[in-house]
Amino acid sequence: MPIITHDIYIEAPVEVCFDLARNVDIHMQTTASTNERAVSGRTSGYMEKGEEVTWEAVHFGIRQRLTAKIIHMEKPHIFVDVMVSGAFHSFRHTHKFIKLGAGTVMKDHFEYKSPLGILGNIADFLFLKKYMTRLLTVRAQELKRLAESESGRAQY
């Protein structure tokens, strides 16, 4: 099961980072490269424990849908979402927010299992893990940019 971890320091309070990361509207903004949009469940605003959202996006030239559910939340330090349905066999994404000085360390821990057995394992090795790492990294950088902007702090 591939595991992707990513840490980024953000010069903004924990509460700001936490709220930006669980905001559906901001998620769509930070994943614009894949045309990601919420099509059912929670389609706007802040995700809460127990809520689901179905995302539609284009990956590898194919329009796909994936439904995720928030299964754990301790505001403003952690939330965990898991795939309910979608292209993966399974995934679990843990988002942690740790106060450090005047800022926050945002930690992503993403575990997934590809479908199709050995073919999925080959896809992981050849391109999928690198692709998913890039998606998480770009999203984290965008969240950092938003959180550190004056408008980001004032708005959220």
How are the elements arranged and paired?
Elements: E1 3-10, H1 14-21, H2 24-30, E2 37-41, E3 52-59, E4 62-74, E5 78-85, E6 90-100, E7 103-113, H3 117-148, H4 150-155
Helix pairs in contact: 1-3
**Number of β-strand runs:** 7
Adjacency order of strands in the biggest sheet = 1-7-6-5-4-3-2
The overall average pLDDT, rounded, is 93
Estimate the strand proportion.
35-45%
The general outline is globular
Say which CATH homologous superfamily is assigned.
Answer: START domain
Protein name: Cell division protein
InterPro entries: START-like_dom_sf
Keywords: Cell cycle, Cell division
Describe this structure in words.
By secondary structure, the protein is α+β, with helices and mostly antiparallel strands. The protein is built from four helices and seven strands; from the N terminus they run E-H-H-E-E-E-E-E-E-H-H. Helix 1 crosses helix 3 (117-148).
